[in-house]
Amino acid sequence: MANWCYNTVWFTGEPDVINSLTCFLYELAQEGRRTGHGQLPDFITRKEGWMFELGWSGEFHFYTTKWKPNTNVLIEVADRYGLNFRHAYEETGNRIFGVSAYEDGVLRTTDLDTEDFEAYCYNENTETYEFENAHYESSDEILQILLERKSAIQILTT
């Protein structure tokens, strides 16, 4: 059985185009619920990165994929609709945690690596995660801190 990668995407661009895309994604979600299978828009050229359990909350869409994010699918969607996007994804069991930004045809990605995941540990005695001499109830906040640091370094070096 696949590990599920959780994806959240925010599309930006003309409001009418985003509304049209939202309606299209709603139809895909309905088809997914009807069939119980992951969905891809019919215009996607690479048949991988199926979207499962599509949903939306105001300005962003969320869904799951098997094993890894499907940024390549989002690029095809954005190009077809003339939009940009920000894509956050995580599947911490496989040490996947990152964010991509696609703007004017340019993709920028920041991913955590094995070293980042090894920067903290779980303490069974306190039932907390330890990172830099502090305790956290979950690893989510730590991963976000590490991702923000890595993003800041990439911005400074580009």
Describe this protein with a few key phrases.
158 residues; alpha+beta; Alpha-Beta Plaits; 2 domains; 6-stranded antiparallel β-sheet; 3-stranded antiparallel β-sheet
Outline of the structure:
By secondary structure, the chain is α+β, with helices and mostly antiparallel strands. Helix content is 34%, strand content 34%.
In words, what does this structure look like?
It contains four helices and nine strands. It is of the alpha+beta class. Strands 2-3-1-4-5-6 form a six-stranded antiparallel beta sheet. It is globular. The model has no long low-confidence stretch (mean pLDDT 92).
Oligomer: single chain
Radius of gyration: 17 Å
DSSP summary: helix tally: 4
Report the sheet-strand fraction: 25-35%
Query: What is the structural class?
Result: alpha+beta
- Spell out the helices and strands N to C: EHEEHEEEHEEEH
Can you identify the CATH class of the largest domain? Alpha Beta
